[in-house]
Specification:
Number of helices: 5
CATH architecture: Orthogonal Bundle
Shape: globular
Oligomer: single chain
Radius of gyration: 15 Å
Number of domains: 1
Strand order of the largest sheet: 1-2
CATH topology: Arc Repressor Mutant, subunit A
Largest sheet: 2 strands, antiparallel
CATH class: Mainly Alpha
Order of helices and strands: HHHHEEH
Number of strands: 2
Helix content: 55-70%
Structural class: mainly alpha
Length: 91
Amino acid sequence: MARQAQISLARNPTLESVLMVEGAIREHGGEMGKYQVWKNLPRKMSYQTFQVIVDYLLHSGKIVVDRKGKLVWIWNPGLAAKLQKQMVVMR
């Protein structure tokens, strides 16, 4: 059981890694698929860790995958703040 915990912890990305992937997707949004974004990251990381980050970004609503398999950044914090200020979005 201890081995299984080590395996899952080995794939936990750091905040720095998440921010790096977010930046790459924002910069190349709609131009590249998963593999191409991973290959063009400024620093190397394992593909498994990259996939964990992409899954997180998909489930959090920050990115989508278009029909051609390209990663597209859709999160708009300015719009979210504006809607929250207008009380459209309530927490």
